[in-house]
Amino acid sequence: MNTLLAQVTDLHIRAPGQLAYGRLDTAPYLSAALSTLMRMPQKPDAVILTGDLTDFGQPSEYAHLAELLGRLDLPFYLMPGNHDDRKNLRAAFPAHGYLGSKGFIQYIIQVRDLRIIAIDTTEPGLSSGRLCAARLQWLQDALASDTSVPTVLALHHPPFKTLIGPMDEIGLLEGVEELEAIVAGHPNVKRVICGHLHRTIYTGFAGIVASTAPSPAHQVCLDFGTDADSAWNLEPPGFHLHVWNRQGFLLTHAVPVGQFEGPYPYL
Ligand SMILES: [Fe+2]
After folding, report:
1. How many angstroms does the Cα of residue 177 sit away from the middle of ligand 1?
2. What is the pTM of this model?
C-alpha cells in the first residue's frame, strides 16, 4: 500500500478577525485547504505543516490555529517557520509531545514505512534561516540511527536559491553546504521538502529532488527581476501530496484548494 504524506505550509494564521498584511483573512483559506484534504478519495496517512503556522507567533494566533485544526481528522505534525515562536507554539499544542519542551523543534516521525525528519531552520528575530553545527549534528545522528529506511527531510527554509530575490535574501543562509554533504552521504534520503516560498518549486539538491509547496492562502509573486518587490498575491492556493510508492523516488502531486466543476466522464 502507498504511504501518503500531505504537506501544508505557510498558513500565517492571525487572531480571529485580524488580517494578515492588513488585507487577508487567512483562516478561511486554511479551512478550505482542510476541507480539500478531507475530501480526497485517498486519505493521507499524515499531514506535515512546514512552518509559518502563524503570522506573528502570538498565543492568540496559536489558539486560533488549534481551533481551526481541531476538525482535521488526520494525524498532523507542526514545524516552526520564521514567523513562529517555539515557546508559544509548544504551549498551544501540549498533546504534541514530539515538539519537545525546549530548544530547537526537531523530531523524527514514522508514517507507515516512510520516515520524516523535521529540522528547525529558524532563528528567533530573523526572517532568514540557519543550520548551525548543533542542528546538523542532530541530523547526522538521526540519519545514522537507520541508514536504510526511506526518509524525507522537512525544513522551513529551502536550501537552494529560487531567483526570487527578496526571498533568497531571507533564505537558508548558513549550513547549506554541510546539509548537502549529509544528504549526499545518505542514499535513503529521498526528498527535501520545504516551505517559506509560498510556491511550488522543484530543483536538484545533493543528487535528489528538493521542493517547496504553495500556501493554502497567499503566494509569493513570481518575479526574477533584480528590482522585484517583496510581494504576495492571490494565485490559486494549494498543498502537496507526497507519495511513497516503493519505486525508489517520492512521487508528488500538487493539489489546488477549492471545489471545481466536474468530474465529467471522458466520453
Ligand atoms: Fe510564509
Report:
1. 24
2. 0.98
Give CA–CA dist 97/89, Å, rounded: 12
Per-residue pLDDT of the chain (267 residues; tens, 9 = 90+): 899 999 999 999 999 999 999 999 999 999 999 999 999 999 999 999 999 999 999 999 999 999 999 999 999 999 999 999 999 999 999 999 999 999 999 999 999 999 999 999 999 999 999 999 999 999 999 999 999 999 999 999 999 999 999 999 999 999 999 999 999 999 999 999 999 999 999 999 999 999 999 999 999 999 999 999 999 999 999 999 999 998 889 999 999 999 999 999 998
CA–centroid distance, 30 to ligand 1, in Å, is 13
User: What residues make up the domain containing 73?
Assistant: 3-255
- CATH (domain of 22): 3.60.21.10
**Quick check: is 265 in a domain?**
no
Q: How far is the CA of 206 from the centre of ligand 1 (A)?
A: 25
Residue 92 lies in a domain: yes
Our count of domains for the chain comes to 1
What spacing in Å lies between the alpha carbon of 147 and ligand 1's midpoint? 32
Residue 172 lies in a domain: yes
Please, which residues have CB less than 5 A from ligand 1, an ion? 10, 52
Ligand 1 geometric centre to CA of 267 (Å): 42
Does residue 88 contact residue 66 with C-beta atoms inside 8 Å?
no
Residue 165: Cβ-neighbour burial (10 angstroms; 0-12, 13-18, 19+): middle
Sign of CA dihedral 175, 179, 84, 221: positive
The Å distance, Cα 41 to ligand 1 centre, comes to 28
